[in-house]
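Before relying on records like the one below, remember that each one covers exactly one chain. Contacts with other chains, cofactors or solvent are not represented anywhere in the record.
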Amino acid sequence: MKKSDLFKYFHGSPEIILLVVMMYYRFPLSLRNVEDLLHERGIGISHETLRNWWNKFGPIFAAEIRRKPVQQMW
């Protein structure tokens, strides 16, 4: 699936959607906490919208991360 097709029917920008899903997965925050953090930065998005994005894109992003090979540190 192409990246442009992934965000086709969503009105948020792909960068914001990626940020929201990353914040929710990476940090121990609730959807309302993520909503508050975005609101402080001037982005008004409901926690229900965040939940919909999380349900739609979370598994897709997680599968993409799992597919990438682990890089050696040394």
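DSSP finds four helices and no strands in the chain.
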